[in-house]
Amino acid sequence: MSTLSTTETLPDQIASATDLTKTYGTGEAVVRALDGVSVDFDRGSFTAIMGPSGSGKSTLMHCLAGLDRPTSGQVVLGGHVLSELNDRALTNVRRDNVGFVFQAFNLLPTLTALQNIVLPLDLAGRRPDQAALDQIVTSLGLGNRLSHLPSQLSGGQQQRVAIARALITRPAVVFADEPTGALDSTSSHQLLDYLRHTSQVFDQTIVMVTHDPNAAAYADRTLLLSDGRIVDDLIAPTADTVLSAMKRLGA
Amino acid sequence: MLRQAWSEVRHHPGRFVSTILAIAISVAFLTGSAVLVATEGQAQGKAMNVSLATADVVVTIGEDVEANVRPAIAATPGVGALAPVFTESDVVTAGVVSQVIQLVNLPPESLRWATLTAGRWPSAADEIALSGGAASALGLGVDGELALSGRDEKVRVVGVTNEPSGLFVKTGYAADARFAAAGYTDSATRTWVIKAAPGTPPATLAAGLDAAVKRVSPKVRAEPAESVRAEAVAHLARDFDVFANVLWAFAVVSLVVGMITISNTFSITLAQRRRQIGLLRAVGATGSQVRRRFLLEALLLGVAGSVLGLVVGIGIAAAETAWSTALFWGLSLPLEQLGIALSLGVLATAVAAFVPILRGTKVAPLEALQPVLSGEERRKGSVVRAVVCGLLLVAGLGVATVAVTVTNPYSLLIAIAAGALISVAVLFGGPLFVPSLLKASGHLFRWTGTVPRLAAGNAERNPRRATATATALMLAVGLMVTLQVATASVRLTVLDEIAAHYPVDLQVVWPAANGDLGSIPTAVAAQLARVPGVDGSVLLAGGTATVGEQQVTLLGYAAGVPAATGANTAVADGQVLVSPFVAENLKKKTVTVKGTAGKRELTVAASQLVTSDQAMVSSATLAQITTPIPGAVQWLSVADRSQAVAVMVAVNGIVESADRVTGSVVEAAFYEQTMDILLAITTGLLAVAVLIALIGVSNTLGLSVVERTRESALLRALGLQARSLRVMLLIEAVQVALVGIVVGVVAGAGFGWLAVTALGRSGGFDSVRFAVDLPTTAGMVGIAVLAAALASVLPGRRAAKAAPTEALADI
Fold first, then answer.
1. Residue A5: pLDDT above 60?
2. What is the pTM of this model?
3. Which residues 6+ apart lie within 8 Å of B114 measured at CB?
């Protein structure tokens, strides 16, 4: 496993991608999902990645999170150079350094909410820090739902359980893929508020893929992707600035 | 619609492989056994009438007619060669190997069907040639020597031919001189074979000969050999029908297990294709159109599987008959039975798929277009099912009680009926208890770690599917264990009976060349006493004497008799022990026993110790009646009768002639050998059913893995190692398989006990012993569990290989 130079024990840059390219297919049917993307993420930042379908935003997230291997380029996450890791080591990196929240199907249907939350720790053979667990559960309002199965929880509750699971390992980065896509507006607001709160107060780095400009407004930075390339980088985005940027894309 | 169905099968072959496999295996079994039995039967028929093999015309003389037709035949124009046909079956012994040989007379050159591979043809009465099959069975070659049992005659092998041996028949060739010496004459001949002279068609010759022989006697007829051969083969094939029916019974069991597997498969694939079905309905297909399409798919699969099974079955039969050399006589394809096998395969697929298709296509168009969580069906067992199965179970138990408590010649049939009732109750009541068993076995895993816990959770979330998988295994394993337990119990019971009735395990004698009593060489006696498995030995002195009118071997009681036989009989000086049969016939209380040294009047006592041609007195009395030959008879006690075969082989090796050994162990050994072969064959046959059930396990797992792609991807994303994922699937497979296997073993043991006890009640045995052949049963369970684990390998690899992103992509 390769890390950055030993003098940087707590890098400000928690994750970075350099010249990432991901292609599918060969010859005439080649699809360039990512075309030479380079980007850095600071610790404690809340970044939104936006773009139309086919822009490569999900692919970028997958490569950053170690879920997929880019065709070329380098990803450094939490001090690990992902391209140099074999499958086993990469899996362990995901387990210990990454948190995931997806749009749906986040939870294992045969486990209770509590078991779902501590699943990454279980897989690592570690016991959760009870204080940390209590704090996360309380702050997400899940205290009385811990023994329920996912089928007994509402959509919003399921997403909150997913967030709890993502945070329990204190990961380098939390990756959220359209986390509010299946929620109503109230639940969406609550969830995004919580994410912003976590990134600001607990220094948790969050990268969120979304298509909703209102959701992007909760982030402190928005990247716009189109055809596999970063075409815009907005600091302190608002719904309006994001919408204008997206309109420019279409032009 | 046919094109649609065909394209479906063509584009997603993986889905259908297991269905095709299940059908193919069952049909291969049906086909293979039909072709095998037909070919072996045909070979048997031709081998037994080997003398007719090359003839053109056959003359048959009617029963009770003695007519010498040789002159009439010889005088008919067109006759090339003629010969009488003599056959004789004999048991021959070469060293310790005994075989049944059919001796035929050697016809003139043009009528021979085999050629020499070594040596020459026999000419003298004490010479024979052996077919290749007989020679290898006896382990003899040219210049070997054979003893003909029952006649104290020895013959010399002078040649070996290329004819293989049939399953039961081995041919030997003897010169006419031998048969003449045995009294076979032309007038006593029943069959003549004739070769037509070149240029004469057999049919014409047959007509001419018929006319000629009818002039000698109206009860003689001449026919073309072709029709006689065909008739002989057909005649024997009928005898093989019983054998064929037994094989087909096993094949049908495999078919039933296959149907359970197919039904399961269709349930799963239809659940997976809900979107496709919903789409069809949304676009405007009616329910019945959709159903018809799937039924057509099922039929196509049935046809594909059956045809595959047919080809494989014929191949296997051909391979077996090549090995058993029956193929030498030609492959026989019973077209009618093959047609039935094919139809059964197609029908079974259609029937098995019918209910799942009915259920699976009842999908509202909209419902199927929405993304669905992997089916978690917590369907409660229906009350109706519980009631029906409960009634069946009670009825079955009641009938079973009758079978084991009431003495009745039909007890076994009653027991089988009880077994059938209980089986149906258990198999159809599966959904009522299998989920609970899965949950219970899951509890065992809860303490051992995350992955096993996940596996246990997965196994019980689709109870209906897990039940169907386990049920197939229950049926197959249950039958196998029933058979094993029944056989083991019967074997032990029969061995006990033999022991009870014949206390003498092994008796060795050493007759002199002229047949008189002789002494067993001391070295031999010592060696015999030391054979592993022999735990007691006594040497008895003996002499010839007459008891009343009958000549017997008179034995002298020795102190070691109780130890060597387990019978605490003693003989007083004034007594004579005779067999119960003889005692009954004597009707008197005393009898005169006379020998070369004197005679005594002795009291008769019946005892199982002696056979009908023996009697026993005290050693003092023996000396008064005859000159005792020391060590004339040796009795050996065998500690464990289930070692009978091993002991026999050792003893035979020491005494070098099977004629010197008798006793209940001999009977027991022969019996055991037969039982072992029978058990091996039936276990092998049932193993086919178990194989199909295990294919079902692999299949269920594979399809549920596909359903759980998102979950597996999620687990991988969260940090589950690929290997751990495979282990998880392995545990799931083993868990479901174990439930089925354990229930099968328990039920099988129960049914086995039931069958044996009922047999006892039907008057077969005095007392019944229950035995489980632990090594075999445990071994079988182990193999089944291992196979279930193996069944999880392919699905596991597929699940672990998928990159997490591919599976997480939106549907």
1. no
2. 0.69
3. B131, B161, B162, B163, B171
